[in-house]
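In this notation, each integer encodes one residue's backbone shape. One such record reads:

___
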Amino acid sequence: MHSCEAAAEAIRDQVRRRARELDCLTGSGNLDLPGSSNWYVPDIAVVPTAAAKGAGALLPDQTLLIVEVTSETDAETDRVVKRKRYAEYGAPLHLLVDRQERSVTLYSEPGRLGYTRADGPHPYGTKVRLPAPFDLDLDTSALEP
């Protein structure tokens, strides 16, 4: 399995049960950014089942959590561009798994200029708290190659 996919799967495995309890799906999918020409396909988007049943792409503010795992070829887009766009479009929680830096950062409190709160970067092996509605600790040692 490609290491980017393996990292996403390690996160998905940890949030799946809580997502089900919240009546959410953990998938990837198209996120529409209205008024821009951009569409993003995050590594993981936790989305309420009711919202996911609609036709077409979802908006970032319909998600509970967006996870991006940096790729070798497009790490700067994952680190900077997507983070700003997710905040601008109201995604409440954005988890960045930076494989090159071997760190995890949780962004919250989105606004027009970006996220106003960052928890991290934390090195792999650190427990990272996902706040309500998840209320769980992610074990980032599962991200080690």
Notes: The chain is about 25% helix and 35% strand.
